[in-house]
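Two proteins, back to back. First:
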Amino acid sequence: MSTISEIVLASNNAGKITELNHLLAECGIRVVPQSAFDIPDAEETGLSFVENAILKARHAARIANRPALADDSGLCVDALKGAPGIYSARYAGEHGNDAANNAKLLQALEGQPRSARTARFLCVLALVRHADDPVPIICQGEWRGEILTQPAGDNGFGYDPLFWVPERQCASAQLSKEEKSALSHRGQALKKLLAELSASHSA
């Protein structure tokens, strides 16, 4: 692990790339988006966040021929048996249509009391040193909250306007970027990954 100086991110999300570059710079690691290697998105055929994260990381590592990092994340609502789960981004049928996804979620929970609207955001990060790495580094973060009955706030994306954060008494979409990074599922997973990489780099 101590030889890693560059990681391919199995995503073209500009926000994720900027955030990861900032965080991993202290470990002496540069993050490059998969678009730099003309890597198409992997088919997410796994049945769990872990499977999909590993699948995406291996796909990017194989084509770029270098270490790769992928994340798979989503919202799990207890009353809906964990849905939308791994299908969070395409819950309403069209990938990345936040408005449609939020509308479908509100409809699915219509009439449910607050006590039945508990939910959690999950994020799994998977880092492979090479495409056939038998021991990927896997870091998971979880963020617990509730689903509101109507959207609130203009920050963030996805289900943020509907996700009530008990410790801040507001919606995720009402948090600043800094607050969200400190609390969120992805922020927690990234802290664990940084700890793993820092330990391996100093070993």
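And the second protein:
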Amino acid sequence: MTRRVLIVTHGGRAQAVAAMTEAVAELEAAGFEVTLHDDDLAEEFGDPASVVRAREGVAECEVVMVLGGDGTILRAAELTHGTDVPLLGVNLGHVGFLAESERENLHDAVRRVAAREYAVEERRVVDVVVERPGESEPVTGWALNEATVEKASRERMLEVGIAVDGRPLSSFGCDGVVVSTATGSTAHAFSAGGPVMWPDVDAVLLVPLSAHALFARPLVIGPTSEYTIQVLDRSAMPGVLTCDGRRSIELPLGSKVRVRRGEVPLRFARLATAPFTDRLVSKFSLPVIGWREAADEAAARRVAGTERTRTEG
């Protein structure tokens, strides 16, 4: 049976092209049939035909290997969403929080894929439903990191109303609102002052952006609840919804955006077994050396004390 891998990369970068060339050669040497993808997907929700064309054959792949940063991984996620095919990210960008491997470890990543030495981890997405005045049918979408409602231009604030499970909660003027998954809590939501959520937290986070209100703190709801963000009629301007920074739709006054946890997760191939805490420390270069050494010394003393007690007993 033929083993297939799809490679998605940032074709405009020399580093990405070099990594792609290396990966293709090694995968083919390992017996894989390799397909390359560099087509741009539709930027609007309303063009499903292009998504279908782009996803032809993806379900037959064993893995989709992504060579690039988080933006390239989010683009590849549009191909695998709704399939069982896992993404394996090799970071060529800066932080690369979604990536599993770094450029210098590309050879080992290919070897591990060939030997099937990887685990598959599921990450939750959010499903989005947009209801716009004068339109009989809603527009649907999804996001791995976040769905963001923002003002359409910089001049004035956007006036929004927030509800949870259909019950009004608050309204305020702001630059926007970020609704994030646990995966996306380290992205836009984190930059806006939201908390970091561990990937196994089954919840959805809402973070207001520069809100003019006393009650405008981050909110976290459970897996069965739903946010509604309405662009109020009193707003001085319309809004725009953006999913994962890629797919956008205009929000006229009166539009409602409903966001809840999605039922269909995305799958990621994981090579490392290190806990999320270690990934967080590594990606953000957190200062933990001092207390880690102290903790190790304390643990060593405890073990030594236990061994002496056993010997003396």
